[in-house]
Amino acid sequence: MLITERTSKGLLLWSPGGGLSRVRFPTSTVWTSGETGLMSLAVDPAFHRNHRFYTCQGGTTSSGGHDIRVMAWQFRTRPLRATLVRRLVTGIPVTSGTHGGCRLLIASNGTLIVATGDATVGTNPRNLSSLGGKTLRLNRFSGTPWRDNPFISSTSRNRRYVLTFGHRNVQGLAQRADGTLWSAEHGPDRDDEVNRLKVGGDYGWHPVPGYNQSVPMTDQSLPGTQIGARWRSGFPTVATSGIAWVKGDRWGAYRGTLAVAALKGSRVVFMRFDATGRYVGMRTPSSLRQFGRLRSVTNLANGDLLVTTSNGDGRDAVLRARPRG
Predict the structure, then answer these.
(1) Is the peptide bond prior to 209 cis by the omega test (within 30 degrees of 0)?
(2) Looking at residue 235, what DSSP letter applies?
(3) In the chain, pLDDT over 70 holds for what percent of residues?
(4) Which pTM was predicted?
């Protein structure tokens, strides 16, 4: 397992029989502030051949400013280190570090999906020339916009990356067995969302003038068509974070649910959606309500789930969850 630590900029390796080791990693490339640092990580499906993995992280621009960028790395074992392959995307906006977003997912067709936050700039989510408040889709090797993106013919480089827009602060990405893409998103003081992503879709966050968080998460009064959430928390929020679809017969009634980690809610919620994507209900097992803030959920090949804690107390952990029996 490769594990990133946001604020310490640490990259760790855990291996059976070998325990936990620190990977030599150029921490000087990472800018940390607030909610931004060394964030999401994705391992290439062909890792056994190319040893590649990807990170989303804060960075420093040549002019001395800051952004969020997606980087491709190669993992080496002698010595244990990560070497930079290339910067795939730069220029994802960031201000104080708040609403840094950034979750990575390699989809079944091999594309890299990048979820971004709005950087608390009210105009970013609907500005198609900004990479903030979006999901982006790109070629994971070259970093170029994916050829089937909805705005691929645009003269704006940034616009060509956009898959969906109108987001506040996307924290989770997952692909269902039917191929649909789903996200989890932070609301302000209400209405965390789980969304099914539609190519070119507008998800309705437009907190202007200024940064007006009293507007609806999905503002149906905006021009065009806004896509409503498949689930929303109402008030108060639980701070939805990483998500994963549960796989394997061993999970019984939980099979096919969407496991959603919650930071403020300190739990994993298993949500059921029917074949059309309609929300049906949820389960919240007590065994996953005793570890504090939960950040990410990752599938293992055998169906088990890895869940990371995010308490910042020096005792954070990677948990392994499996069905009883």
Answers:
(1) yes
(2) S
(3) 100
(4) 0.97
